[in-house]
Structures are given as structure tokens and as C-alpha cells.
Amino acid sequence: MEEKGATAAAAASGEPAGGEAAAMKVVVAVDASEESLHALAWALDNVIVRRGGGVSLVVVHAQPGAYHFVYPVAAHGIAIAYAPAAAIESMRKAQEENSRKVVSRALDICKQREASANATGAVVEGDAKEAICQAVEDMNADLLVLGSRGLGKIKRAFLGSVSDYLVHHASCPVLVVKPSKAHDK
Asked: Is the full-model pTM beyond 0.90?
């Protein structure tokens, strides 16, 4: 009977009955905003450090597809979408470079906080809402952390909210880190 109680207690704490800490996968979604980097720092300080060595961290950046920037053109009643291949290739290279910089900056923050041993970066392509949601599912994440830009209700209604979408559609718990008080001033 005592063994069954120990197993239940271990299950409730998220640890296997053998006493080893369960490996937890935390995905932090980042972009070039200070809010997303604040969320990363918060996750490092409050989840990774408190949990100890049993956490793997994946920093994910969603890069829009190159065709996201190709707009339809209407002429003489015919709608077409055209962009020269060289322009699309140039846009894709610029996006890839930007994505590398965003992920690199995030991994530098991990390094500064001495959490780089279990941190990796990933770039996913597509609409941020859907790409992050799919990445979380594919990675079997235990927790998704992301920042909030702190939009008001009206702006959020018109612009949409990545965090709102992910809270409702992600396959794992989602932690939205609000901007710091200093950011509001």
C-alpha cells in the first residue's frame, strides 16, 4: 500500500516512480520584440532554473513564407500574383538571415543565464500562429512560453493575437508572459 502511495505522489509531482526527474520540453516562441525576449528570460529564471537539469529548451522563431509578400495585381479584369524569382529568392535569404539573428540573440540570452547546455534553436516557416502550433505538436512540448505585446481589446480584435490563438489551439499548456511594468511606462 505504501508503494502505491509513493507512485501516486511521484506521478502528481511529474516525476517517475524511480526518483529520476522527468525530462520536460519547454518551447519558447521568440521574434525580434523585447516582449518575446522578456518571456524567454522569465522562462529561464522561473521554469528552467527551478526545475534544474531535467529541462530541454527549444527556442522557436516563425518566419513568414516568401510568398507571404507577393500581392495580387489586377489588370484589365484579370487578377494575377507575380513576383520575379530573383525577388522571391532575395526575400527568402533576407528572412533566413533575420531568423538566424533572432534565434542567435535568444540563444545568447540562454548562454548569459547559463542555460545553454540544454537549449536549441529552431526556425519554422509559415503564419506564426499556425507554424508555432504545429511545431509544439511535432516537438511533443510540455509547455509553450511566449510574450504578449499587451494590445488592447480593439487592437487585438483588428490585428489578431498570436498568444490568444495559441492559448486556444496549442496541444500543450501555454504560458503568456505579460510585458514588465517598466515596459508600460
From this structure: no
